[in-house]
Amino acid sequence: MLAKLEDIYLNILRIAVLAIATIALVVFALTAAQTGPLVGQFIGLKPRAKVEDASFAQFVQTNLPATGQNSYGPPAASDAIYPDTIVNSATNVVAYIKKHQNYDIGHANALSFLGGIYDDMSADYQRDYAISLQDFTTQLANSTGTPISTDQINQAIRWHAQKFMSAAAESEIKATADRAKAILAITVAGISLLAFLIIIFLFVVVKIERNLRVVQVHKLTSQP
Q1: Cβ(89)–Cβ(137) under 8 Å?
Q2: Cα 216 from chain centre
Q3: 137-190 per-position pLDDT tens digit
Q4: Residue 78 CB partners (closer than 8 Å, separation 6+)
Q5: pTM recorded for the entire structure
């Protein structure tokens, strides 16, 4: 009678253990899947700050002043070394002014102006800004509308920088939120996996204990 009750108990326990362990494993799998994209945020990697609404065409349509002057100055000497993207941006600006105003402002002058804005950017986002600025000045160089003055070009570049800084700030906020989500997701995944292992371990221990007891009883009953 006791043996039958014990079998019933173990069967119920087996079903309960399998159900709970399965739930724990499913929770772990789902949480781990959600954690994957957030791991980069947890370890400190930042998403790229990308400006979605700061093209040169948008500046011309919404922010271009009615008038502008051509303010030329002597080339500014600078010993700073800038990435190729900033150098290319300066080349684009020089080419645009030379094409539409027939004046060479000097690559050093353009590079000094663009490099100053680049230096003011957070080090975490300087690379992204340089890439974005290169795209922006390429649009400027390839534009076919009414030519703009050097003052307007300067205003356009500052406008683009402000747009980028806003995007970088939003990216930082998102990164902070994603890191918090990653910590929570990793914690839940760890607890779920631990619960799964503990439940399986307890079930195995109960099973082993029962088998050992059965063997011991069998030995006692088989003795003459």
Answers
A1: yes
A2: 61
A3: 999 999 888 888 888 899 999 999 998 988 888 877 877 777 777 777 777 777
A4: 108, 111, 112, 115
A5: 0.59
The span from the CA of 81 to the CA of 94, in Å, is 18
User: CA–CA distance from 112 to each of 42, 80, 82, 185 (Å)?
Assistant: 37, 9, 10, 46
Contact call for residues 65 and 150 (beta carbons, < 8 A): no
Three-state secondary-structure class, residue 47? coil
Question: Tokens 């356009």 correspond to what residue?
Answer: 156
Alpha-carbon distance 146 to 60, whole Å?
10
pLDDT for 61-105, tens place per residue? Answer: 566 554 544 454 544 555 678 999 999 999 999 999 999 888 888
At 8, list the tokens: 């019933």
| Cα 156 from Cα 101, distance rounded (Å) | 17
Sign of CA dihedral 198, 203, 206, 211: negative
